[in-house]
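Figure 3 (text version): structure tokens given as input.
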């Protein structure tokens, strides 16, 4: 994802006032936004607004977000809401001020063994919670682990969590 970019015009996604672009990826855009009802900052991931989304993929994204919203754990980024806006699906989740594990490794290089052990135990605690709910995360990678200003690792689950269909699915 690229550096944060300001928004030149006032933009709303539902009740959320977009403040700036946090990053752009191949799948869409992540915005920092203000929840106008609850007065808190949130992150919103959406495919590019104004472009017509594939209805099957849009339904899958919203359904996956609904599944992920059932998760509650200190090492999982919570999903607050999901829906459609201007024909594009969006997912609203807690804004974690910090950076992804991928960004940390790229900027800082390898971490100490003691820090890696603590970080990995936090990641595994989040994943264990996902599995305890008979769910599976299909995309564990450093880009999907957020490390907050408090140095706590948190698994992003808003896109890649699905119900475990059978014991053989892993």
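Below: residues designed for each position.
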């Amino acid at each position: 994802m690229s550096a944060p970019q300001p928004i030149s015009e006032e933009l709303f996604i539902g009740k959320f006032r977009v403040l700036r672009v946090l990053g752009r990826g191949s799948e869409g855009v992540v915005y920092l936004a203000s929840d106008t009802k609850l007065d808190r900052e949130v992150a919103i991931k959406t495919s590019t607004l104004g472009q017509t989304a594939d209805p099957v993929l849009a339904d899958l994204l919203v359904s996956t977000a609904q599944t992920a919203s059932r998760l509650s754990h200190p090492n999982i980024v919570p999903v607050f809401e999901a829906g459609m806006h201007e024909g594009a699906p969006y997912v609203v989740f807690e804004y974690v001020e910090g950076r992804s594990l991928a960004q940390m490794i790229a900027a800082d290089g390898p971490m100490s063994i003691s820090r890696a052990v603590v970080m990995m135990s936090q990641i595994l605690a989040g994943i264990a919670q996902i599995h305890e709910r008979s769910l599976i995360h299909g995309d564990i990678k450093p880009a999907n682990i957020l490390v907050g200003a408090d140095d706590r690792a948190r698994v992003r689950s808003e896109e890649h969590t699905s119900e475990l269909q059978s014991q053989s699915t892993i």
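The chain has three helices and 13 strands.
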